[in-house]
Automatic annotation (TrEMBL):
This is Ribulose-phosphate 3-epimerase. It comes from the Bacteria. It is an enzyme of class 5 (isomerase). GO terms for molecular function: D-ribulose-phosphate 3-epimerase activity; metal ion binding. InterPro entries: Aldolase_TIM, Ribul_P_3_epim, Ribul_P_3_epim-like, RibuloseP-bd_barrel. GO terms for cellular component: cytoplasm. The active site is at D35, D175. HAMAP family: RPE (MF_02227). Binds 1 divalent metal cation per subunit. The keyword Methyltransferase does not apply. Pathway: Carbohydrate degradation. Catalyzes the reversible epimerization of D-ribulose 5-phosphate to D-xylulose 5-phosphate.
Amino acid sequence: MRPLIAPSVLASDFANLQSEVEMLNRSEADWLHIDIMDGRFVPNISFGFPVMEAIKKHAQKPMDVHLMIVEPELYIERFRAAGADVITVHLEACHHLHRTLQQIKATGAKAGVALNPHTSINLLEDIITDVDVVCLMSVNPGFGGQKFIENTYRKIEALKNLIISRNVDTLIEIDGGVNKQNAPLLLNSGADVLVAGNFVFSSEDPIRTIADLKKLSN
């Protein structure tokens, strides 16, 4: 199966955001990955509803919204209204994860759970049947351009085994440090969705770079 490619808008040129989104529309990208950071859950601040709404005006691809925020349950409906098609919350930020996932699904969006590099796959055993997407962080969340964490391959394999054992269709998304060297290995380990930020937007030809990732198979 060909992977889903989700370029991270956080790595785009904010001064030319419309043209960057229009470029992604022309590309083979499947989703637009939108990182929301609150300066509390992670040590950085990105953007919120006004920027999301501006992106939505021009985006022709589904918006994959990654909430790196505390108390995400307070904002689920607003992110959906702002254009989110996939809403991913961090396991580490949710006191009542099942309730939050049901809240996301009630809006009509796909429900995702993100895990930090230190968080065990085992914590998903009681919730995996309710999850549409698991986003494995392959860097520590909060900043782009970090070095890929090699233990990610093992976590993908463990997660894939859990998904198969429960007979569910949950997608495995990898976020952080994805490039042409590790992308084939990630897919061979069982990944379905690749988030690529700097690798795409810093390349000489982002459309070609996305197409090259799309040619890979798992």
